[in-house]
Amino acid sequence: MHTEKIEEAKKLIRENKLKDAETILMNVDDKYAVFELAKIKIIQGNDNEAENLYKKVLQLDSNLHEADLELARIYQRQRRNELAMQFYNKFTDKIKNDVSVFKEMGRLYESMGNVDEALLNIDKAHQLAKDDIMTNFELGIAYRESGKDQESADVFKKMLDDNRIKNDKFLHNKALNEYEISMRKEILESKPRAMIGMIMNKCNISCRICDIWREGVWQEPDRILKEIVELLPYMEDICWQGGEVFLMNGFEDMLSEGVKCKNLNQVIFTNGLLLNERNLEIIAKGNVELVLSIDGATKESYEYIRRGASFDKLCKVLELIKEVRKSTGAKINTYYNPVICKTNHKEIEEMVEFAKKYEFTAITLNPIRGYPEENIFQPIDEKAFDFMRQIIPVAEAKAKKYGIRFNNWMPVDCGCKEITFKHELINESVVKEDNKIEVSEKKNLEDNKKKINNRMICYAPWQRLLLDNMGQTRPYAMCTKWLGSTEEFSLGELWNSKNMQIYRRKLAQNDFHDICQPECISGQIRYKLCRPVEDK
């Protein structure tokens, strides 16, 4: 009887009827029912509740090793890396033929700075799946990360002769690009694999803490927009930015073209006020994430900061997103990005409650930069800081309870954790819940940096383009030198421009002091396109 009910619940989970599945499982006293309940919490993004349920499974049956694996994955997402590795090892002690798990362990070791163990685990995966394309990609990258460029190049050169890759536009470009990185080439045949595209600066509101709306007259030329669309099938990530991109005629068509590309993840920065059933229907069909700029949790603060915006309209849009998720079964990730300033800093706890109400995936606290009337950081407003020192830990604890990822980018004495930028930056410090870097992992990182001092600190000039305001371009946001303007050059010309070649040459020679930010040079942050396609 229990088995039939659990199978019925599993079918409902596959159909994204999570509430119905949960109702069935709550009335079944069985370890497998608890395991499926935990799976529901993972789908809902509530790692905290899922963790407790998986622990309960192991109390009922310590040999149900799939629960060990899921706990390892939760801890890895939370960057509790040593704990994650403990549970991964517990799983692999019993199950030694899971290719995906060895790859996950390899990525975890690499993020911890232990490139030798990373390569060892990726190689274990490769030995189990020598013909698997994605495993070969990871093996080639692991060789390069451990400072073995020639071995890496050999892997990718062999892949380029594989007919499965030759006949796939995306995979061929990816393999060619990785080969060119390993060979440290300055002029590339491969095309960009990631892009940040500020495609216009018009906006529908006039925020007190932003000046883009004051310009509001520029848009990328049609030939550049056409070129971006032509590049989408080759790319893994694109971040659309404005202004407000939904103001632009034709943007929904560009978004739709991206949705057709199965390997492409799209991120849209938006104030959300122009989202509607039509464009949300497009978003629900693809790998599209929404970063919503919402500077407040109350009508008063929100409408004061975001002049011309309606808090009531915003809330209706957020309810609509919830409805679209429910009606389509789409997992539309939403990220709540408030800029913390004088007007809203006392609402941080309320922001977490707001994020819970509207089912946000994560909340990220950003300190204001500039704008003296609202700036509490330069100079420091001690009264505001005293308040935030007390409230940020409370807000973070609430977020964890609700299963909402909490990214705190505030200054250190506001309780800041060193964090990772999604898809784009790898922070090579590992943080525990008490905000202290784990000593063993920090030492591990430093030891491995000495071993691989020939490894490039960044791959951005080989992998991506950033299109900035008024057509200016760089490889990435942390890069100091401009490449040129889209008003004068095509993206193809900029991709192999003289300045881009200088970036590649200098990084290949580890001569980066006039092209990189101090954070990059010190190893605090590091760009690499790291999300495997199979994990999207």
Spans of 5+ residues with little confidence (pLDDT < 50)?
Answer: 416-445, 447-451, 530-536
Number of helices: 25
Broad CATH class of the domain at 194-421 and 459-487 = Alpha Beta
Mean pLDDT: 89
- CATH topology of the domain at 194-421 and 459-487, by name, is TIM Barrel
CATH superfamily heading of the domain at 194-421 and 459-487: Aldolase class I
Report the sheet with the most strands, covering strand number, pairing sense and barrel closure: 11 strands, mixed
End-to-end Cα distance: 36 Å
CATH architecture title of the domain at 194-421 and 459-487: Alpha-Beta Barrel
Q: What oligomeric state do these chains adopt? A: single chain
Q: Give the overall form.
A: globular
Which structural class best describes the helix and strand composition?
A: alpha/beta
Helix content: 40-55%
Strands, count: 15
Strand percentage lies at 5-15%
The rounded Rg comes to: 24 Å
Characterize the structure shown.
By secondary structure, the protein is α/β, with parallel strands linked by helices. 50% of the residues lie in helices and 10% in strands. The strands form three sheets. Strands 1, 3, 4, 5, 7, 8, 9, 10, 12, 13 and 14 form an eleven-stranded mixed sheet that branches. A two-stranded antiparallel ribbon has the order 2-6. α15 links the parallel β3 (237-241) and β4 (265-270). The longest helix is centred in the last third of the chain and has 21 residues, at 382-402. The protein is globular. Residues 416-445, 447-451 and 530-536 have low confidence and may be disordered.
